[in-house]
């Protein structure tokens, strides 16, 4: 690579890009860790993007109509931090750059959306950013259809690496973007042919150009160090009616001794090589030093969108106040005021009518009430619409010919769905929910974890939540998935017992601002157990006394979801034997854990024997409530699963695995002794 | 679709295929559940494959050199069961067909490999079968290179549906197969354009032909109901030097009122429609009735490979006895006799030398000893070879030009790696292990669960297993992943404290026949804690007393992995204060749970206060050992994580999150009161 030729051909561009490269080298040298090669390789692309195309105003990083810039190759975080600092982002100061990867810095090893403005999403786990981006672009389409082009009209740009494209989820994203003709999605592929283990072709020889084209993308191939080519490609991309992938041929760790090698991917900290690289750039300044003319040029880029943003604010002020309020409310993840009342009246109605619905059906009935009120919801399913009961008639189908549609047929793509839903939530203005079978939590896991880490309220509607799904067998029967989601920090796992609890769970999920929710819903029909209407949302307490012991309390049955009805049946039998039995419904362990000691003690007092009932493994947090919280080993038991399930009718499976009222009664009697 | 024309054009073929369709209809009618459309649509393809191409002997379904037939679209299980019954598989009798999806039947809702011979893998979660198949084909290549074409020379056939191709993992599989030129892998795509939610194109318009070609596949497009075209395509596929995808244009639920509709995907149980379909087939026989001439024709197909198989046995008998023994031993997942001795001498050596290695480095040192002995291992990493320490010099790299290579650069494809490893284990003769960062358990989850369900000893080498990885931050720091794997039935989760325990864990993992193992290994260096050599494998007991209290035992510290050293440090401090403290190392909770009560009581007696220490969430099974097993709430504490981690140097993170000897001492003192 002849750097001198590049420098002299376009000195102003070169210097701006060199600032990114120099800051990257300095920050990683100071941290003694990080990934140098990607920012150094993609500095030219990023410079042209920010200078000539990206619509943003560094002084107002949360401007809703900004273009979104997503660094899918999150290990190259110094690229993003450099850009934010150089353009004048208020959070990412030079001090932050100097503290790259240090305790308390906003400049974490991988970009974390909740640390600083300008970080649109949390990346690092590869393939996530490009998949989030599909959701960003969909959210833009939905909002543009609703609010008009004067208020919503922006692009989503992604920088993705070879790793992003090798991860399977990228195929799901590519297929979705192509199908939905997300023409405002522009992916810049850092085509450097290097991964950690060597050149890409030791593991993959896929023709990425052909692959993207096969899914309906426009593809443009350029030299990623040629500013004019980058500019022209971006211009062409913006006017396409298809999503665009720009294949940017680059040199990883450009100008460094480790250029074009796997070593260049990692932390380049050798002082002499660092100096040599800076020399090659013609960069004669000290560590972390950006000369004022270069910084001024960058700051001008950061201010470039200011006038646009002011004009946008004027246009926004012209739409109706109702619309403005709705727009702002949705961005703030504030539930509409009407929601609580609607939930309450549904609760009252079902407490009276006492339907015997599967909770997936209950969920549909709640959504019928909710979706017309919470107009920012976008629903969908990974090709199980009729099974997940996620669609309501008012939504319309999101398609190129109907951008107002609020329901997405995600196809058989649980992971892509989850990641794109995260993208919608991150974009703002949309509250996404999507369904699949609970067992396929496994497929969606990487994105479900990130929802929790990113503090966004994505809702995962997980139906067919136990052996109760019956004949489809153990491949489809979750036993450990409640445990998986409960073990994940910042995640609400709701397992409602009937329609009332399902409505309460949805109310919490749709009011959450920083916490994703997992709704664990049955395939099989269940009786209504909340037959007495309470206006209060009891699910918000996590657990509560559903039925009090008659006479002396000798046993407490703690159950969730479909097993609450079994607990009630067992209670009736135990009471008939003179054993006073309390039933505690525990639809959300996380919320119960958040209650104060006094409340928890009222629900789970010492003394009585305790039996937990859940058609899942005990590892799902049960020991805390059985052995802890004033319980003890000799007086506690669990009725649930200890193995994978089996293929047979649901009732027979409950018998086979001993999850019955009879087994509960026997366990209580054994514990009472 | 003009069925009459098809019938009359090729009546013998038609009748055989009709038998599959009729059995499918009858079984699903009897079960009142299942998926009719796929077997009915793909019956012609399957009939030609079994009649003219698939090398198998129904009377010897485990013949090692049989062609493998993998039903990736596992919901179409009646296709497989019909084929097995018709060809004379000893397990799948007519009685089993009649008991489809019933308790105890071998004919589960989705095919389960461990229930019956002829079921090569467990499918249903889409995309798994096609990804397993990559491993099957790799295993065949490795074994053929080693044993020669006279002993190993077979194809892997896959039937995959639209769902399989939409799942992201299929892209990982396609990329791998193309890169490795797995020419003996042949995928038959059931191109019926129907999924549960509607036609495929509501969610995807990918040109699958172009997509496969982009990754180096041969693609052949045929009418999936034309026997001659099917035959010709299979013939062409077998002689290619690339993997082949045959796009079979089919009609889902052929001949039924629900043909070509989403309804046709599911259970077609209407008696009149069922009769009409059979009439259209010209099938006049009763339910479950296959006339003897048709059954005879199918049984002849089942016996077709018998002579081949006998000849193979003769050829096999001609290779050296040593090679025969090795071949059989590897198929039986029997560890070589030398393994134990080698592990013991390594243990002795490291107990003496006491290296301060990260356990990922320990693992590499174990592999250096193990790989030359356990010659059936095939190792690899998802592009983190130097970080996972999974490669040893003797292995060679598996590539088209080196089929004897035992190390696979999987690329950035954790899910595809895990699924292909499962395929290798299922194929037989190979014991696969593969590495990634532990946090990316999330990506590999669907295949990790299936390894456990399928009862195969795949080994997952998960390094960088806590906040101890430092600056890469919370996106890369597992906190809930020990809990995830521990909650999964039939999975060993090893978290070794030093090189000795790492060697012991590997010995167990490499001796396992029916249980996958997860090795949780550190990035950071650790002291050797097992400084006194014991020949016995203490890790096999799950937990043991590493250091006894001096004087009266007042505290028991239970720790795993990197936190055992913290426990030892805390013990020293506590003993200095006169508080007798036992340290229990607990490298494998599952194995400890399997010990008898007497042993568990010896390790965890009542009385002393207990503190668990693990840089992960408490939900990972801890309450059982802290509150249960004679423990109690008032006398138990936990030192670990309650949130996601952060980006900073590892030592600072341990301080920040309070996982230190000092915090442990303080907790013990607080509990003693």
From TrEMBL, chains A, B:
<feature type="binding site">
    <location>
        <position position="387"/>
    </location>
    <ligand>
        <name>substrate</name>
    </ligand>
</feature>
<keyword id="KW-0808">Transferase</keyword>
<feature type="domain" description="Transketolase-like pyrimidine-binding">
    <location>
        <begin position="357"/>
        <end position="528"/>
    </location>
</feature>
<keyword id="KW-0786">Thiamine pyrophosphate</keyword>
<feature type="binding site">
    <location>
        <position position="162"/>
    </location>
    <ligand>
        <name>Mg(2+)</name>
    </ligand>
</feature>
<feature type="binding site">
    <location>
        <position position="75"/>
    </location>
    <ligand>
        <name>thiamine diphosphate</name>
    </ligand>
</feature>
<comment type="pathway">
    <text>Carbohydrate biosynthesis; Calvin cycle.</text>
</comment>
<feature type="binding site">
    <location>
        <position position="194"/>
    </location>
    <ligand>
        <name>Mg(2+)</name>
    </ligand>
</feature>
<dbReference type="GO" id="GO:0005829">
    <property type="term" value="C:cytosol"/>
</dbReference>
<feature type="binding site">
    <location>
        <position position="265"/>
    </location>
    <ligand>
        <name>thiamine diphosphate</name>
    </ligand>
</feature>
<dbReference type="InterPro" id="IPR009014">
    <property type="entry name" value="Transketo_C/PFOR_II"/>
</dbReference>
<feature type="binding site">
    <location>
        <begin position="124"/>
        <end position="126"/>
    </location>
    <ligand>
        <name>thiamine diphosphate</name>
    </ligand>
</feature>
<feature type="binding site">
    <location>
        <position position="440"/>
    </location>
    <ligand>
        <name>thiamine diphosphate</name>
    </ligand>
</feature>
<keyword id="KW-0460">Magnesium</keyword>
<dbReference type="InterPro" id="IPR005474">
    <property type="entry name" value="Transketolase_N"/>
</dbReference>
<feature type="binding site">
    <location>
        <position position="192"/>
    </location>
    <ligand>
        <name>thiamine diphosphate</name>
    </ligand>
</feature>
<dbReference type="GO" id="GO:0006098">
    <property type="term" value="P:pentose-phosphate shunt"/>
</dbReference>
<feature type="binding site">
    <location>
        <position position="476"/>
    </location>
    <ligand>
        <name>substrate</name>
    </ligand>
</feature>
<comment type="subunit">
    <text>Homodimer.</text>
</comment>
<feature type="binding site">
    <location>
        <position position="523"/>
    </location>
    <ligand>
        <name>substrate</name>
    </ligand>
</feature>
<dbReference type="InterPro" id="IPR055152">
    <property type="entry name" value="Transketolase-like_C_2"/>
</dbReference>
<feature type="binding site">
    <location>
        <position position="163"/>
    </location>
    <ligand>
        <name>thiamine diphosphate</name>
    </ligand>
</feature>
<protein>
    <recommendedName>
        <fullName>Transketolase</fullName>
        <ecNumber>2.2.1.1</ecNumber>
    </recommendedName>
</protein>
<comment type="similarity">
    <text>Belongs to the transketolase family.</text>
</comment>
<dbReference type="Pfam" id="PF02779">
    <property type="entry name" value="Transket_pyr"/>
</dbReference>
<dbReference type="Pfam" id="PF00456">
    <property type="entry name" value="Transketolase_N"/>
</dbReference>
<keyword id="KW-0106">Calcium</keyword>
<feature type="binding site">
    <location>
        <position position="265"/>
    </location>
    <ligand>
        <name>substrate</name>
    </ligand>
</feature>
<feature type="site" description="Important for catalytic activity">
    <location>
        <position position="35"/>
    </location>
</feature>
<feature type="binding site">
    <location>
        <position position="192"/>
    </location>
    <ligand>
        <name>Mg(2+)</name>
    </ligand>
</feature>
<keyword id="KW-0479">Metal-binding</keyword>
<feature type="binding site">
    <location>
        <position position="35"/>
    </location>
    <ligand>
        <name>substrate</name>
    </ligand>
</feature>
<dbReference type="InterPro" id="IPR005478">
    <property type="entry name" value="Transketolase_bac-like"/>
</dbReference>
<dbReference type="Pfam" id="PF22613">
    <property type="entry name" value="Transketolase_C_1"/>
</dbReference>
<dbReference type="InterPro" id="IPR033247">
    <property type="entry name" value="Transketolase_fam"/>
</dbReference>
<feature type="active site" description="Proton donor">
    <location>
        <position position="414"/>
    </location>
</feature>
<dbReference type="InterPro" id="IPR005475">
    <property type="entry name" value="Transketolase-like_Pyr-bd"/>
</dbReference>
<feature type="binding site">
    <location>
        <position position="472"/>
    </location>
    <ligand>
        <name>substrate</name>
    </ligand>
</feature>
<dbReference type="GO" id="GO:0004802">
    <property type="term" value="F:transketolase activity"/>
</dbReference>
<comment type="pathway">
    <text>Carbohydrate degradation; pentose phosphate pathway.</text>
</comment>
<feature type="binding site">
    <location>
        <position position="464"/>
    </location>
    <ligand>
        <name>substrate</name>
    </ligand>
</feature>
<dbReference type="InterPro" id="IPR020826">
    <property type="entry name" value="Transketolase_BS"/>
</dbReference>
């Amino acid at each position: 690579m002849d750097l001198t030729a590049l420098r002299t051909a376009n000195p102003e561009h070169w210097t701006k890009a060199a600032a990114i490269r120099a800051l990257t080298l300095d920050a990683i040298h100071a941290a003694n860790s990080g990934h140098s090669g990607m920012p150094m390789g993609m500095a030219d692309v990023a410079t042209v993007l920010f200078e000539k195309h990206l619509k943003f105003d560094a002084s107002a990083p949360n401007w809703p109509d900004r273009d979104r810039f997503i660094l899918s190759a999150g290990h190259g975080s110094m690229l993003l931090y450099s850009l934010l600092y150089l353009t004048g982002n208020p959070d990412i100061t030079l001090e932050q750059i100097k503290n790259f990867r240090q305790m308390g810095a906003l400049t974490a090893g991988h970009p974390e959306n909740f640390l600083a403005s300008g970080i649109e999403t949390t990346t690092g786990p590869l393939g996530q950013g490009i998949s989030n981006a599909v959701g960003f672009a969909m959210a833009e389409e939905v909002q543009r259809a609703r609010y008009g082009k004067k208020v919503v009209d922006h692009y989503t740009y992604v920088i993705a690496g070879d790793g992003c494209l090798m991860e399977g989820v990228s195929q799901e994203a590519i297929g979705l973007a192509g199908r939905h003709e997300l023409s405002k999605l522009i992916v810049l592929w850092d085509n450097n042919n290097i991964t950690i283990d060597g050149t890409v072709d030791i593991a993959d020889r896929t023709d990425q150009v052909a692959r993207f084209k096969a899914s309906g993308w426009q593809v443009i191939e350029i030299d990623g160090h040629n500013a004019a080519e980058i500019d022209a490609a971006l211009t062409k991309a913006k006017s396409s009616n298809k999503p665009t992938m720009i294949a940017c041929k680059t040199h990883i760790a450009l100008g460094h001794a480790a250029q074009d090698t796997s070593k260049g991917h990692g932390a380049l900290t050798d002082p002499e090589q660092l100096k040599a690289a800076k020399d090659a750039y013609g960069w004669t300044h000290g560590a972390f030093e950006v000369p004022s003319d270069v910084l001024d040029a960058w700051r001008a880029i950061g201010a470039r969108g200011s006038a646009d943003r002011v004009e946008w604010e004027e246009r926004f002020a012209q739409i109706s106040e109702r619309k403005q309020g709705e727009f702002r409310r949705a961005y703030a993840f504030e539930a509409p005021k009407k929601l609580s009342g609607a939930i309450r009246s549904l609760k009252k109605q079902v407490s009276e009518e006492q339907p015997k619905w599967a909770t997936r059906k209950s969920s549909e009935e709640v959504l019928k009430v909710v979706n017309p009120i919470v107009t920012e919801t976008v629903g969908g399913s990974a090709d199980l619409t009729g099974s997940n009961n996620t669609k309501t008639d008012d939504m319309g189908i999101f398609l190129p010919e109907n951008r107002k549609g609020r329901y997405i047929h995600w196809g058989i793509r649980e992971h892509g769905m989850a990641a794109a839903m995260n993208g919608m939530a991150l974009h703002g203005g949309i509250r996404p929910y999507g369904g699949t079978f609970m067992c396929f939590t496994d497929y969606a896991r990487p994105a479900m974890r990130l929802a929790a880490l990113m503090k966004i309220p994505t809702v995962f509607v997980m139906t067919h939540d136990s052996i109760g799904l019956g004949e489809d067998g153990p491949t489809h029967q979750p036993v450990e998935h409640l445990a998986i989601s409960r073990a994940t920090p910042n995640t609400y796992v709701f397992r409602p017992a009937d329609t009332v609890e399902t409505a309460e769970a949805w109310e919490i999920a749709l009011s959450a601002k920083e916490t994703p929710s997992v709704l664990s819903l049955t395939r099989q029909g269940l009786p209504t157990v909340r037959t007495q209407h309470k206006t209060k949302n009891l699910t918000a307490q996590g657990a509560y006394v559903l039925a009090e012991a008659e006479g002396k309390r000798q046993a407490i049955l703690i159950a969730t979801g479909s097993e609450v009805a079994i607990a009630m049946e067992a209670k009736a039998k135990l009471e008939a034997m003179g054993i006073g039995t309390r039933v505690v419904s525990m639809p959300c362990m996380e919320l119960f854990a958040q209650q104060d000691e006094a409340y928890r003690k009222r629900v789970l007092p010492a003394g009585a024997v305790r039996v937990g009932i859940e058609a899942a493994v005990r590892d799902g947090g049960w020991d805390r409530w059985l052995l802890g919280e004033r319980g003890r080993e000799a007086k506690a038991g669990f009725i649930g699963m200890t193995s994978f399930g089996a293929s047979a009718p649901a009732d027979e499976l409950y018998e086979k695995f001993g999850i019955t009222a009879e087994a509960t009664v026997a366990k209580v009697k054994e514990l009472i002794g």
